[in-house]
Amino acid sequence: MDNNQPINLKALTHQALRDYCSEQGIPSYRGDQLFQWMWQKEVHDLAEMSNLPKSLRESLEEVTSITQLERRKETRSKDGTIKILFETGRD
């Protein structure tokens, strides 16, 4: 993995978020909070995660990302089948 690439927090499991926080010297419960924001509250901007300290949000913004799927194309066949093409990242 390229060390210059930001870590996609959305790609980490709940436990992996806890582990990542712990490895960075951040209390592991912050991983729980990140998970809740991304998956339960569907927030994808660290700046909106108000129960995280501003200093933590700012430091995470420097080394992480929260990637979302972007719908690119949708086709429907005569039999009703729907195919959707999503973009998962730009690299």
Count of the separate structural domains: 1
Radius of gyration: 16 Å
Q: SSE order, as H and E?
A: EHHHEEE
CATH topology: DNA polymerase, domain 1
Q: Give unreliable regions as ranges.
A: none
The overall pLDDT, averaged over residues, is 90
Query: What's the arrangement of strands in the largest beta sheet?
Result: 1-2
Largest sheet: 2 strands, parallel
Write the CATH architecture name. Answer: Orthogonal Bundle
Write out key terms for the chains shown.
single chain; 91 residues; alpha+beta; DNA polymerase, domain 1; two-stranded parallel ribbon; two-stranded antiparallel ribbon; 3 helices; 19% strand; elongated
Describe the structure.
The chain has 91 residues and is of the alpha+beta class. It has one domain: DNA polymerase, domain 1 (Orthogonal Bundle). The protein contains three helices and four strands. Strands 1-2 form a two-stranded parallel sheet. A two-stranded antiparallel sheet has the order 3-4. β3 and β4 form a beta hairpin. α1 crosses α2. The longest helix is centred in the middle third of the chain and has 12 residues. The chain is elongated, with a radius of gyration of 16 Å.
Outline of this structure?
The protein has 91 residues and is of the alpha+beta class. The chain has 3 helices and 4 strands.
